[in-house]
Design a protein that fits this description.
homodimer; about 210 residues; mainly alpha; DNA-binding
Chain lengths: ~210, ~210
DNA sequence: ACGTTGCTGGACGATTTCGTCCACTCGCTT
DNA sequence: AAGCGAGTGGACGAAATCGTCCAGCAACGT
């Protein structure tokens, strides 16, 4: 289910080498998330991870391979987070409410945007090889929402007229767009508005049997 | 109302120089929209606009000044489009419906994303001077929606419980997020879903007096 | 007609950044 | 203990890109 990239290359590494590779990856992911892709040069990664220049070439022959690995790293993180028991498979309105609350209430994650969305926006126009990978990750993300919403509908928690696929895209778009606006405005307000409006819209489909306010 | 940048520098230019400056600007805007900021080097701009290297430095001393001017160029375009009579100040549901239809029905504008959103995502993390300019543009954009929605509420076209500011953020976020998802998926579906869901949500506030389906 | 101001052109230097190369060290196996 | 492979280190070369410099050209006013 995970994207599983770079495992082939990591198989023939000793524990020490694998640890070094992982260390590079973590620091690179943090730097790219913080400063963007093309503002993160190999010297920054080198200093942050405490490795020398040749090791980057050793574990990640080109910068593209590093970026690709970072995408998978963030993808696993984001998808894992959304698949955690915390949100109960997104099959209740409360789960979506908890999800939005998480981003709104947790201090400052909006300053750097979405780890995947920001990255996607930055490189979508340049590297076409990365395109398919990103598309797959977003498709999986959307599928998490869609499956949950579809289950809600099958269980009669929301009206049959609700379109799970459409609502899933709405949530994902509200989140991505809200993150962008919040990032630009340096204010979480737009994200909060977008997400709460999305949840409000979901509530309009809640069947009267199942209605209890959050 | 317009952002009005670079006008100071343009004032002491002859018509010929001003034409050259405008030509550079147009081609740079198109290139940046198509290929992104940091994939658009001055040689590409030079060849596209048919000017020599020194003219870029003449009219735009640094790349940042060029990007700044391009932002204003796109900002004027986007804000002007939304302020056109076409959408009647966004004070009817049909106006919002027409707005979404425009993006969904017009062939392929989603492939390169939103001219402002993509640009914002790419440089928000790098150049801090650009930050404020972008924030102002998005605030104006949001304000167009908010004023229209507020007017709708005052006219009783939508319920008093509707929050214009929140709905405005929702529309903008749905558009930006939908554009990003459509761009990554190379499919307009996500944008269509997000925008139609946003309009659907707006419809839930329509008062019974004013209800006529689109 | 002539000079000043603005416009144009190509070439150059400086900087950044990526990726490679060779030499050295560490740990494990024989 | 010796050898081999993996891991490590720093330095180097190559490429791209930005911005500057100086010289020639055009246009306008006096």
């Amino acid at each position: 289910m995970q994207v599983n990239n770079g495992a082939d290359a990591a198989q023939k590494l000793t524990p020490k080498g694998q640890a070094t590779r992982e260390r590079i990856l973590e620091h690179a992911a943090a730097l790219i998330y913080r400063k963007g892709v093309h503002a993160t040069n190999n010297e920054l990664v080198r200093r942050a991870a405490g490795v020398s220049g040749s090791q980057l070439s050793h574990y990640f022959p080109t910068k593209k391979s590093l970026v690709l690995a970072v995408i998978d790293w963030h993808a696993d993180s984001v998808l894992g987070f959304h698949r955690s028991e915390r949100f109960a498979s997104f099959d209740t309105v409360e789960a979506f409410q908890d999800w939005t609350d998480f981003y709104v209430l947790s201090g400052r994650p909006f300053e750097d945007g979405c780890s995947l969305g920001s990255l996607a926006s930055e490189i979508v126009k340049t590297d076409l090889d990365v395109h398919d990978r990103l598309a797959e990750v977003f498709a999986q993300w959307r599928e998490i929402f869609r499956v949950g919403l579809d289950r809600m509908r099958q269980l009669g928690r929301i009206d049959a007229s609700a379109d799970p696929a459409r609502l899933a895209d709405m949530f994902l778009a509200a989140y991505q767009g809200g993150m962008l606006l919040a990032q630009v405005a340096r204010d979480i307000g737009p994200l909060q508005d977008a997400l709460s409006a999305a949840v409000d819209h979901l509530r309009t489909f809640v069947t009267s049997d199942d209605q209890h306010m959050g």
